[in-house]
Amino acid sequence: MTRLVPMAALLALAACGSGQKVDPMQQVGPHPYLPKPAEELVADIGVAKVVGWKQGEAPTVPAGFKIEAMATGLTSPRNVLALANGDVLVVESQRVGSEPVDRPKDPIRDFIMSIAHGGGGADTAGGGGPPQRITLLRDADGDGKAELKTVLLDHLNSPFGIAVLGDQLYVANTDALMRYPFTPGQTKITAPGQRVVELPGGLIDHHWTKSLAVSPDGSKLYVGVGSNSNIQERGPEAETNRAAIWEVDAKTGAYRVFASGLRNPNGLTFYPGSNTLWAVINERDELGPNLVPDYMTSVKDGAFYGWPYSYYGQHVDPRVRPQRPDLVKTAIPPDYALSSHVAPLGLAFYTGSSFPAGYNGGAFVGEHGSWNRKSYNGYQVVFIRFANGQPVGKPIPFVTGFIGPDKLDRGRPVGVAIDRTGALIVADDTGNTVWRVSYAGGAPKPTA
C-alpha cells in the first residue's frame, strides 16, 4: 500500500501530458513527421488494465480471413517459431527481478512497464518467478487447434529468440546464446545445453529480450541486444556492445558487432530470397508522446543508426551528455517509420501461398503497444506491403481488437510467424494465447 501512494501521485502528475498533437499516421513511412522534442519530467502514461479474453472473444481480422486460438492457457507467450513439420514452438518468458533505481522517476517507469509487458505491476523476483520455457504445440489433424501442448525445454533464463539450424535448437537467453540437440518431431529436450556465447545481461538488464535469426547459408547467427537504458543514463560502460545487432559464428561462437545505434532491435529476419537482414526497433522514450517513431529497417553491415546521440538519422537528442557530433554525422536514417511508441517486437515476411497474392513478400509486424503515451498506439498486428524489396504505402491494420471499446486490454501481440500452411501465427502475451489467422476466401487485396 505504501508503494501505491507515490505511484498514484506520479500517475496524476503524468496525466498532465506534454501537449504534442500529432496524427499517428503522419509518422509512418520513410519520411515521418517529427515534432519538436518535449522532454518530460514525468512521461505521458497510458497502459490498459489487463482483463484477458472472455469465452467466445477473439481479435478482429479483415474480411475473408478467420482467426482462432491455436492454444490457450499459456503464460506470457512472447515468441513463436513455426517448424517445417507443422509444430509451433512458443517461448513463455518474462524478465526476472527489477532494475536498480537510478533516477527519481524510474520507479513509476518500471512499475508501468511491468504492466505493459505482462507483469501486472508485480515484482517477479520471488514467489517462484515467471515461466522460462519453450512449449511445443502440435496440430496433428490440421484443424488449426493444437491437440498436443507440451514443455519442450524448461528452466531457461528469460529466453526470447529461437531458431533451428540443422540438428540444433538455438535459444537466446537474456545472458547467453545456447544450443541444444534437437530433431523436428521431438517433444522434449533432456540433453544439457551448450553455451555458444555470453550475451550482455546481469542485474542491470534494461532491454532483456534477445531476438535471433539465422543467415540464409546457415553459417551465422544474428542476435539483437537492446540498450541498458533509455538514453545512456547509466554511462557508456553499461552500454558496451549493447544497442546493437551481433553477428555470431554458428560453429565457434566468435562474434562481432554487425550494426550499432539500435536502441532495442527485435524481430530479426532475412528478407525472402536475399541476404538482407531486417529488424524492428523500439526507439527512445520521454521526449513526448509523439517522439520518437519506432521503425522497421534493413540493417547494413557496419552501419550506425544514431542511438543515443541522435534519432531517425541525424536529429540530435539534446538530453544526452556528452554529445557526439562525430558519430551523429555518420548516423543513417531507417527505412520505414511505424509511428511513435507502438513497441514493435515481432516481424515476419509472408512466404506462404494461401493468402491472396498481394500479401506475398510483405511484412507482418507485431506491435505490442507502449506505455509512453496516454492515447493508445500499436496493440495490433499490421501488414506492410513490399515492392522490389522495399516497404511501400502505409501500414494496414490486420489483427486488431486487442484493446476493446471499453479501453481494457484483452491481449497484446508480440512475436509473429508464418506456418507451413501459410497461416499467420501470433503470440499474445497478456491474453496468454497463440492465435492462428488463415485465409477463408474472398479477401480483398491490400491497398494501402
| Helical residue percent band | under 10%
Overall shape: it is globular
CATH level-1 class:
Mainly Beta
The topology string of helices and strands comes to HEEEEHEEEEEEEEEEEEEEEHEEEEEEEE
Report on this structure.
The chain is mainly beta. The chain has a single domain, classed as Neuraminidase. The protein is 6% helix and 33% strand. It is built from three helices and 27 strands. It has a five-stranded antiparallel β-sheet with strand order 1-20-17-16-15, with no helix packed on it. Strands 2-27-26-25 form a four-stranded antiparallel β-sheet, with no helix packed on it. A hairpin with a 5-residue loop joins β3 (77-82) and β4. It is globular, with a radius of gyration of 20 Å. Mean pLDDT is 89; it is low at 1-18 and 120-127.
Provide a short characterization of the protein structure.
The protein has 448 residues and is mainly β. It has 3 helices and 27 strands.
Which secondary structure elements does this structure contain, and how are they paired or packed?
Layout: H1 4-14, E1 28-29, E2 65-71, E3 77-82, E4 88-93, H2 106-116, E5 132-138, E6 148-153, E7 161-165, E8 168-172, E9 176-181, E10 194-198, E11 212-214, E12 220-225, E13 244-249, E14 255-260, E15 265-270, E16 277-281, E17 293-299, E18 310-311, E19 315-316, H3 325-328, E20 336-340, E21 344-349, E22 363-367, E23 380-387, E24 390-399, E25 413-418, E26 424-428, E27 433-439
Antiparallel strand pairs: 1-20, 2-27, 3-4, 4-5, 5-6, 7-8, 8-9, 9-10, 11-12, 12-13, 13-14, 15-16, 16-17, 17-20, 18-19, 21-22, 22-23, 23-24, 25-26, 26-27
